[in-house]
Amino acid sequence: MQHQLLDWILISVATISIVWSAYKIREWIHNVCCSPVSYMIVTGKRHYTTDIDINQLIVKLGVLGTFITQDVNIIQKQIESLPWIQQVSVRKQWPDTLKVHIIEYIPLAYWNDLQTISTTGIIFRVPKEYRDNDKKVMPSLYGPEGSERIVLANYYVLNEILKSIKFQIKSVQMDTRCSWQLVLQDNIHLKLGRNNIIGRLYYFIKIYPILIQKINDHNTCIDYIDLRYRSGCAVRWGSHSITPVLCSK
Q: For residues 132 and 173, is the Cβ–Cβ distance under 8 A?
């Protein structure tokens, strides 16, 4: 009889302990899961996006939900509203943290003096405080609406050709008639016209040593070079005199 009583007591104590432990674990899980998301970790290479930008966007959503209830897709769409963001991923990290990974568009050039064009031809706007600094270090591309990918493709080709004589492009412009102009880093304007722009650029490279000789001999500079002629080109010098340059193409 005593053994049965002892067994009953042991079973009761064990049962109470299990129930109590289960209750405490349930209470702990409930408290953790019902606590609001409190921390955020932001990763990714960022040029324009600041922590302040992200915080302000999330504040606009109101009070964040708990680890269980918070919809990360809502936060993701909110951050994607920044025009320079290419991609965002948001996920939860137990017990109260959001992990945000950001991919921005990679800026290549200024587009029509108002926007920025990425390395893949995407047009986007950047924060106002960055525009002046970007314009100092990036070339400018110009073209009619919808022509950004054509202009960008030709920029890549023309810039690669000019690297052979260590020239850099300051700007590329295509007008509504598909006529092309370049401005090089020393403010030389090249008028390439509509046809055979690659051949005309190679012609400029061919005659450039002749032009350099005249620049050195006369202590002058070049305003623009019109390469739209079948044989030769016209050079306008800093003194505003125009000289024909004949050279077989």
A: no
